[in-house]
Amino acid sequence: MKRIIICTLCLLFTSLLSSYGSHVIGGRIGYTHLSDSTYKVTLVIYTDCTGGSLLLSYMQGMSPNVWASTDTVKRLVPLTIDTALSGVPLMPPCAQPLVDQCTSLTSLIPGFRKYVYSANFTLLSAAKNWRFLYDGTNAVPSGPPPYSGRSLQVTNLLMSGSIMQLMATVSGQFPGSSPVITNTISTYFCMGFPGAYNPGIIDPDGDSITVSLVAPMNGNTGISAPYMSPFTPTAPLATTWGGFLFSPATGNMSFMPNQFQRSVVVYKIDKSRAGILIGSSQYEMTVLVKGCSDPCTLDIAATNKDEQTTIYPDPATDHINISSATFDYSSVTISNALGQVVLTQKLVAKETTLNTSNLAPGVYYLLLQGNNTRKMQKVVISR
Question: Which domains does the chain have, with CATH numbers?
């Protein structure tokens, strides 16, 4: 019985963090120079809160694997959690208090948490350039390691659900710490209204900083995750024409989103000293665009009206209706709060009724997909 329980928990954890139904919405990796050739490697993972207390407990109990390597040496650096800095909810972008999904799973306000992991590592050769690679693998006390998978609802990647990979580099000949991100990503932005994000990059050594946008890497394969046309690493968001500006000096993004989206954006931050590149770090985030006139008035009903697609009733009982005036979608998938797919159906008409009589009461996520568009909405089944 004990073995069965352990295996069940392992499978559940894998479903929470794997590339199939992930709650991971971003992360960053960097390092701090302690002394001589010793560095503190730090990984931050951001998740949504829809996994509830179960996700929280598992994130607190895992140990992410980082590989420290040169062209000839490879060493595993298991990280441990910093409990004082982990499990902290990110505040919604609103001056007034809001009840988000970190507080209540029935809330429509998205909620994110951050988790911080670290370990010290001494470079085996100061004459080498070293890489700190997080391949999305996380050690747990028992069972197979789960992975930090990107959400299946990502809208700008063809390989939605791929595994997050992050890398930092350091030159043993030029000791120093990686640049610091001081501003956490906003939990969401409003469709049709100007958005902006500045990571607030500070270099503790006073070195020169250059910021670029790069393709997200897939920890499954070690190659870049392909984009859905027309998105690219340097144009990762759905915006109005000319509505995306980026500063290589600061990493500031300003944009005018014209679609509801869940878009992956990856920063690469290079640091140079006397014109010599001596290190780099990466920061991945998910830009979530919702229907609202300002961050304090998030309105799912307005989102549905603007898209001319309605999903009702909510809460539902034994059926859910989908009405699409433009018929932009060809399939629908419903997943539970753990990311497990419980219903899949093709859409062949503008009006569709889904039979949900066999689904247990609770919170679910309905995903509509077409050739070039996606829409996700939380639905509640209540009886």
Answer: 2-290 (no CATH), 308-381 (2.60.40.3080)
